[in-house]
Amino acid sequence: MYHELFTIDKAYHIKETVRGRYYYPKHPDGHGETSEVSRPLREGEVAEWILLDGTPATCANVALHNLYPDEIDLVVRFLL
Fold it and tell me: Domain Survival protein SurE-like phosphatase/nucleotidase: where (predicted)?
């Protein structure tokens, strides 16, 4: 029990530098372009996503507590 609590607690310590990029997918294929800064949507783009380079726990922590002021419905993890 103690080990499980300790492991969960460490998941919220962000020690590394986390880099982010903005991604603009196009409908219907989902391919798009990335940008270092946020920009208005262009024709054919359906959303602005923020891609983070970090551990799954770090990305979830940043997303849930820093990127979006309202309630979040879903956090997706991609393995590249």
Answer: 37-76
